[in-house]
Amino acid sequence: MSKTTIKLLHRIAAITSFLLVLSFFTSSIMVELFGDITNIVMVKTAILCGICALIPAMAITGITGAKMAGKCNKGPIAQKKKRMPFIAINGLFILLPCAFYLFYLASNQQFTTTFYIVQVIELIAGFTNLTLMALNIRDSRKKSKKVGHP
């Protein structure tokens, strides 16, 4: 695969991942503020379905990013490499279980204190990942500008 193809694939996967996490985050907040029980169940179901697209997009982002970064351990690329394990761990061990559990609770109409505690944990972890992903996008843009790419 050519360098250009890898860069394009990385960019598409990274933006897709970011937009999916952003849509999960904003839809969760909006449905909690303005939706009813049916809407909450629908959003939790949609998030679970969306995870089926998010996981491959994140994997492609990580694989192509690692391939492009090589052994670079300074500058913006080094910063991205430091953030990526945290994004992955946060996603796999906090966000993914929260999504499944919130779907289970919502599907069974169990809107108890537990539901809202897990929802808050998911929102904090989601905001954290969004922030780290945005920093990675910013650092990619910095590197592109240094190299002279748009």
Can you walk through the features of this model?
- Helices cover 89% and strands 0% of the residues.
- The longest helix has 35 residues, at 113-147.
- The protein is an all-alpha fold and 150 residues long.
- The chain has helices spanning 3-34, 37-69, 75-107, 113-147.
- It has a single domain (3-147), classed as Four Helix Bundle (Hemerythrin (Met), subunit A), CATH 1.20.120.
- The chain crosses the membrane at residues 12-34, 40-63, 84-104, 116-137.
- Keywords: Membrane, Transmembrane, Transmembrane helix.
Short précis:
The protein is mostly helical and 150 residues long. The protein has one domain (3-147): Four Helix Bundle (Hemerythrin (Met), subunit A) (Up-down Bundle).
| Separation, N- and C-terminal Cα atoms | 22 Å
Quote the CATH topology.
Answer: Four Helix Bundle (Hemerythrin (Met), subunit A)
Which sheet architecture does the biggest sheet show? none
Q: Which CATH class is shown?
A: Mainly Alpha
Secondary structural class:
mainly alpha
Average pLDDT works out at 93
| Portion of residues within helices | over 70%
